[in-house]
Structure formats: C-alpha cells, structure tokens
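Marked as duplicate of an earlier ticket. Keeping the data here for the record.
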Amino acid sequence: MSLQIPIQKDIGEYEEKIVGKLSFRTLVCVAGGFGSAILVAALCHFWIGIEVADAALPVMCASIPFWLAGFWRPFGMRAEKFAPLLANHHLKDQKLLYSCPAAPDLQKAEAGRPTRRARRAARRKGAEGNEPSR
C-alpha cells in the first residue's frame, strides 16, 4: 500500500483562504453584499418609511450583484473577466471572414476554354482559391 497525498493540480488557480473557505476577493464581495443590503434597508426604513420586512425586493436587488461577483464562476472564469467577453460577444456582428491562401504551385486559370493543365490544377486541393473569373 502506497502513501497518497492529495495535491493541488493547478497551482496557478490556487487562492489563499482568509476566513474559512473564503478568499480575500470572496470575503470583500460578501462584505459588500451585506453592506449594500443594510444600507438599502436603512434608506427604505428611515428615508422612505417602509418597514424593513416589506423592503425585501430592493434589499435583494442591491446585494445580488455582490454575491454573483463573489461566487459565480461561468466557464471557470471570474465574473469581472467573463462580463467583458459576454458583452463583446453580444455586441459584435458575429461574422467571420475566411480566405484560403492559394498554393504557390497553382497557376491562375484564365477565362475561356481551360487547358488540360488548368483542369488538372483545378482538381487539386486548394484550387478553390484560384478562380478563373479573377
């Protein structure tokens, strides 16, 4: 029986834990969520005059972005890295232009009746880049 020791597979993804299983970044996000929830509840109670129990929706709406930033990991990325990529994906026109580089040994085919050599060159791989209409 061999001695087995679990190790971190990718040391680049390791985050130092500050409190319990929370890293510094996650701890700051949790504190921001609690702070924003308390601030919105206090504003609703003292400024608007709504009871705190009735102000659950604004309290949750104020704290959810902090919780998502702390715990949500889409495709293994942090939220601040994923959000610009998602925005870029949805704001672009999503069109890719492909071009096939012609092989250097292929000669340009001219308009008219093709020669035997031109027909043979057209059957080769990469011949679609050598259009006779150009």
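See parent ticket for discussion. The radius of gyration is 31 Å.
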